[in-house]
Amino acid sequence: MRVYYRVLLSKPWWASEKDGWEIGGVVCGTSFLDSYPIMGIKGLEVERHVWNYIERRAAELEVSLENAEEAFGRYADRYKILPEIHEIEGESFGEIVEELYERYVAAPAKLEVKAMRQVEEAELEVVAV
Amino acid sequence: MLQPIPDLAIFDREAITEHHIIESDLRRVWRYVTILQGPRSRVLRDIAGGCYYGTSALLHEVIELRVLLEREPYLLYQSKEIVRRCLRINKDAHVRALMVEYPYLQQKVQDTLGEKIGLGALVLANAGLDDLWFLAESELPLPIFWPSDDEACRAMSLLSRLRALKAGG
Questions:
Q1: Which of A66, A90, B108, B156 might form a disulfide with A95, Cβ 3.0–4.6 angstroms?
Q2: What range defines the domain where residue A42 resides?
C-alpha cells in the first residue's frame, strides 16, 4: 500500500510571537476512506476537539491532500503544512500510521529528551565540581 | 475564567470506585492537563462538567497519567515541553486510556440513553481518525469497526445528549 503525506507544523496556543513552528506530525491523504479525505498523525498534546474540527471540516469541504490547509479554518494560525508531498509504502495503512508516528512525532521528541538530559547531566557535573 | 478543581462527588461513583480514583488523582490530572494544554483547556471544562461525560474524560486522563508517572515519577514537576515530549514517546499510555474511556462511554450511552452505538463511531465523533487507528491496531481485544457516516453522526448526537446530563440529574 502507498500513502501520500505532507509534514504538519504546529504552534501551541501558548507560544509567543518569537517562538517558531515545530514539527507536529503529518497529514496523510486518505481518499480511500469514504468521507474522510485527510488524517492527521500528530502529537497527542494537540487538543482533540481542535483536530476533530479540522477533520470534520475537511470532510465537509471535500479537500484533498493538495489543499488540506483549507480545512484548518479558525485554527490556521496554529497549524500549517509544508508544500512538498511525500510518499511511503507499507503492508497496511496501520503499519504506515505507526511508521509515520514514530518518524515525525516520537523520534524528534526522543532526540530532544536525550539532548535535554545531556544538558542536565552537564549542569550537574558543573555543580559537583 | 480559570477552571476550579471540582469535587469527586460530581462524577459517576461506580467508575470512581472501580478505578480507585481519589482526590489526589484529580489534583494530579488538573496539574497534568494544565501543564499540557493550559488552564483554559477544553479537557478541564469537560471534566468539570462531571456526570458520565466528565467521568469518561477524567478516566482517560487518570489512566494515561498513571502510566506516565510509573515511568517518569517527577513528570508533574517538569516543564510543559518535557511533559509533551514524554506523552509523545509514550503513546501506549494514551491508547490504554482510550481503551478504558470508550467502553465506559459506550456502556453509559446504552444505560442512560437506551441506545447502542459502536466504539468506532464514538471514537470518531469524540476524538479523531488517528485515535481510531491506534485503537484498531492495538492488541487488546476491543471490537472496533469502521463506522458509516450515519453512525458517526448518530454518535455525535448521542455524545451531545450525554454531555448535557448533569451530575445528580
A1: A90
A2: 2-128
Domain count, chain A: 1
Which of B27, B38, B29, B47 lies closest to B2 in space, CA to CA? B38
* Together in a domain, B31 and B73: yes
Distance in Å, alpha carbon of A13 to nearest chain B alpha carbon: 8
List, run by run, the mean pLDDT of 10-residue segments along chain A (129 residues): 93 69 90 84 84 90 94 92 96 88 89 76 72
**Model pTM score:** 0.87
For chain B positions 112-151, those within 8 Å of chain A (CB to CB) are 125-131, 133-134, 136-137, 146, 149
Task: Tell how strand A2-10 and strand A22-29 pair up.
Answer: antiparallel
Q: What share of chain A is helix, strand, coil (3-state, %, to 5)?
A: 45, 20, 30
